[in-house]
Design goal:
Blueprint lengths: L9 H8 L6 E4 L6 H9 L5 E6 L2 H10 L7 E5 L5 H7 L5 E7 L4 H5 L25 H7 L2 H12 L4 H14 L5 H11 L13 H12 L1 H15 E11 L2 H15 L19 E3 L9 H6 L7 E7 L1
Parallel strand pairs: 1-2, 1-4, 2-3, 4-5
Antiparallel strand pairs: 5-7, 6-7
Length: 311
Amino acid sequence: MNIKHIPVLLNETLDHLNCKKDGVYIDATVGHGNHALNILKRYPEIKMLVGIDHDTEAIERTKNKLKEYKDKTTLLHGNFNKLNTILEESGIQNIDGILFDLGVSTAQLIDPSRGFSFNSEGPLDMRMDINTPLSAKDLLIKLSAKEIEDILHNYGEERWAKRIALRIKENLEERSIGTTRELADIVYSSIPKKFHPKRIHPATKTFQALRIAVNDELNSIDKGLDSALGLLNKGGRICAISFHSLEDRIVKNRFKYWAAECICPKSIPICVCGKTSTVKIITKRPICPSEKEIGENPRSRSAKLRVAERI
């Protein structure tokens, strides 16, 4: 499949990753390999670029894209929520910078067989790693209406979560929901037409929420960030690009917690927690795409880049 993918906030990310000579850098969500390729082009004196992805197809695509730099590139299959284990098994202990480009990739979205999009007919799958056991279809069968409602509310911030969840379970009692279009049609009919959003498809939030649940994305971000901090050398940086408020909130709060000198309640006059600051936040406010970038790549419009440096 020939896929045109434009890396989001590319120059801003490369500038803030601030790669050093002989440093070891991680692209924890290597995807199409475009960020990785441009890191190697911009910083040819780094020692190694390690690309990680839990999609085996992404690894194969990137292997070909980075073949010119194969002597400086290591590509590893796995989810960044197991970052410590992945790097330890490859003999990598300390790193000088890491990039997280969060969310679903363009290749996954446009491939009907992966089941991420309501724009085309495909199996209701949504697994980023096809080796994981539960697809979106399996999840909907397994969960109760209340559990589905909670997922749609918490991960999609869907106003009509209860109504959609009930309709899903009602349909499952009569027949299987096996395709993306079938689910999209159920969601579409569940929301009164006068409340359909103007800019996005009515099923957008439902598909986002199910994708997050299937891949346990938010817990993975927490675990991945914590692992990255533990591996980062002094002066090394974490760059995280998020695409919706739930991801961004986790990154923002993690950086804020790491940067805090004390977490004692304000009612306690003397610090007793013993916490010390472990990072300096480089981006006091997130970096967002320019109007020019959004015009060239509409998918970038919701992107936010946050950067923290190990101290």
